[in-house]
Amino acid sequence: MKRLFLTSIPVVAFLLLVFGLFAFVPNSAASDFFLHSSTNDFLDNTSPTATTAKFKDSAAVNRTTYQEIGTWSAAPAATWMRLTSLSDLHVWIGLKNSDDQGTYFDLRAELRKNGVVIASGETKTIQGVTRNPDLAKEVAVAFGPVSGDQFNPGDVLSIKILTKVADNGGHNNAVGLRLYYDAVSRPSSFGALFLVDTTPPMVAAAVNPAPNAAGWHKTDATVSFTCSDSESGVASCSAPITVSTEAANQLISGTATDLAGNSASTSVLISLDKTAPS
User: Is the four-CA dihedral 70, 80, 241, 208 of positive or negative sign?
Assistant: First the structure.
């Protein structure tokens, strides 16, 4: 049976961030990916514990061009998994400069795999943003459909958050928008549901030519293997094996391995006698 795991895209007791040893574990009970910063900006499923929020500022913004606030990356995937659904990104925002009070903002979130966008969402015309950190405004961004949902070992999940001035209303530009995160009161995060493949692939053996009624071959026999996997897909399948040695009950085995690392084997017995009786 396949298992569904809620993960905060760190998720995985199998994944390690290059810059800090926090796990990305699919079988984790946590369901959110939290934005963090230390030496680098990163994602994991550990809830923030700090009382003071970190923040990042965008560059100056206008109505036409989105500017990046920041990008947070999870550890490289250590096993195959499929991203099946996402929940909203929740972040807290404020002004970089109090003179921009009254500006309306758009906020965009891009979920990426190896730097390529696989899902995105926007929240438009956000009003009431202030410079006071204690009055930071919580904003939710809903993601659209997910494409490229399969993660292989080594793939990196990241989220990029951008902003611009809204198309209508308020001021035409602003010094920048500030995003707060990584604190108990500002746990900026999103949720993800991953399918992890724990089922071995299927492997079957076929013998050509078939043995006679007594179970013997009188000519060389070739054992071929057919492999299939309904989840992650087949990574490797044993090549055909030709049996040319005369002997009874020779055990010939083949193995299939899927992209998640699960494997299965099958065997057949070959009895070969190519020598005429005397």
Answer: negative
User: CA 149 to CA 146: how far, in whole Å?
Assistant: 6
Phi, psi of 270 (to 5 degrees): -120, 125
Candidates 70, 71, 68, 83; CA nearest to 8 is 83
Quote the CA–CA distance of 63 and 57 in Å, as a whole number: 17
Judge contact between 80 and 153, C-beta under 8 A. yes
Longest dimension (CA), the chain: 106
Burial call 35-58: b when 16+ CB within 10 Å, e when fewer = bbeeeebbbbbbebeeeebbbbbb
Structural contact between residues 259 and 80, judged by C-beta atoms closer than 8 angstroms:
yes
CB neighbour list of residue 260: distance below 8 Å, 6 or more residues apart: 79, 80, 81, 196, 197, 198, 231, 232
Tens of pLDDT, residue by residue, the chain (278 residues): 444 434 443 433 333 333 333 334 444 333 799 999 999 999 999 999 999 999 999 999 999 999 999 999 999 998 888 898 899 999 999 999 999 999 999 999 999 999 999 999 999 999 999 999 999 999 999 999 999 889 988 999 999 999 999 999 999 999 999 999 999 999 999 999 888 888 999 999 999 999 999 999 999 999 999 999 988 899 999 999 999 999 999 999 999 999 888 999 999 999 999 999 98
Cβ-based burial of 249 (10 A; exposed 0-12, middle 13-18, buried ≥19): exposed
Distance from C-alpha of 5 to C-alpha of 269, rounded to nearest angstrom: 41
**Spatial separation of the C-alpha atoms in residues 221 and 215, rounded to whole Å:** 12
**Rounded to an integer, what is the distance from CA 251 to the centroid of its chain?**
40
